[in-house]
Amino acid sequence: xxxxxxxxxxHSRLRLGIKPGLMRMNHLLEELGNPHQKLKTVxxxxxxxxxxxxxxxxxxLQEAGYTVGTFTSPYFERFNERxxxxxxxxxxxxxxxxxxxxxxxxxxxxxxxxxxxxxxEVITAMSFYYFAELKPVDLVIYxxxxxxxxxxxxxxxxxxxxITSIGMDHMQFLGSRLExxxxxxxxxxxxxxxxxxGVHQPEARNVIEETALERECEVFQLGKDFTAERLALLxxxxxxxxxxxxxxxxxxxxMLGTHQINNAALAIKVVELLVENQEMKIEPEHIRSGLKxxxxxxxxxxxxxxxxxxxxxxxxxxxxxxxVKTIKERFLHKKVTVLFSALxxxxxxxxxxxxxxxxxxxxxxxxxxxxxxxxxELYEASTHPNKVEVHDWKTYLEEKIEVMQxxxxxxxxxxxxxxxxxxxxxxxxxxxxxxx
Length: 436
Known about the structure:
Layout: H1 3-12, H2 23-31, E1 41-45, H3 50-63, E2 68-71, E3 83-85, E4 88-89, H4 92-109, H5 119-134, E5 139-143, E6 160-163, H6 171-174, H7 178-185, E7 195-197, H8 202-214, E8 219-221, E9 227-234, E10 237-243, E11 248-253, H9 258-276, H10 284-293, E12 301-302, E13 308-312, H11 317-330, E14 335-341, H12 348-356, E15 361-364, H13 375-380, E16 387-389, H14 393-403, E17 408-414, H15 416-435
Parallel strand pairs: 1-5, 1-6, 2-5, 6-7, 7-8, 13-17, 14-15, 14-17, 15-16
Antiparallel strand pairs: 2-3, 3-4, 9-10, 10-11, 12-13
């Protein structure tokens, strides 16, 4: 089997759809020798902020000299990114080896009482085997795929569990009330494992606290047990003050937005617990340099040094709210143009109406992807006076870049799948423009 065949086999599992539940996963792992039981892990769930919290934590641990695995989704530019070690995606050769290991087990299960494992279950199992057997690491940070309680990553017993935020997303799977979504997210809480929460809505916090109480876990709540307060908007980042019973320090980030300060604070609290439990040795300078170095693709990511061009994966109402806050804080006296595309199973009207508060012009486009919203669907959901239908986003961006003035900001946002097509197209274009 070669790499292309391996990836094609993984993607062929998509036909099985999303299959919540852990019985299949447990059987698959048992057949592989239960590699997940050999790992030290941190488990990170939540509606928004998971990926950024993962990258802050990974960078801090790396600065302290540890080898860190990460399991994240979706990938941004290349499938291999989902399973990474110290930020480097799994090699084509190792990914192929992993498929050759997992494929026979998965195919045997097709005729069993458990049924065939889904794409996500297969990838999760591959990651466990990779970090336990092929490339052993000091710690793996697991990002929940969907929800928590029935997510295939939820077979681990981590050293720390984190719930970053609760918002209205994936409601067809998780429920339509914040309490329902919080219940699913709180499913990652394990008996006697400390929980760190960045959740701010009282009804969702109550669910997390009640679950933690039942399972005899200590909860560390952002804003109550530890705090993070912005001190300054930096040109390319944030400066903030972090306070807890253990430390009081000032840190800087290279990522933009109040929400990134909160994500970084969650990562710092994880570090404190790992040190307190004598799992790791990490100094304040490791935290300082790790946070500063951390970056995550598609999160207010600047694509140009000469023009204000950003991509941001605001793909649900809470993500859009965070983006709008950042626009108002940073680009108040500038002309902001947004190009937006999203999947039609998202809360389109609430997202678009919130975006319209903060932008001068808005274009709606589409791209080649299942479940994508049409240009017309997005356009009709908008009431902005300066809205346009964009049927060819490549030409639109080329023309926009050519006429941008000093006070113009161009922001491409919405689906991360869309941004993963935009970024590799735009980067060489911007490089050629810079050389002119």
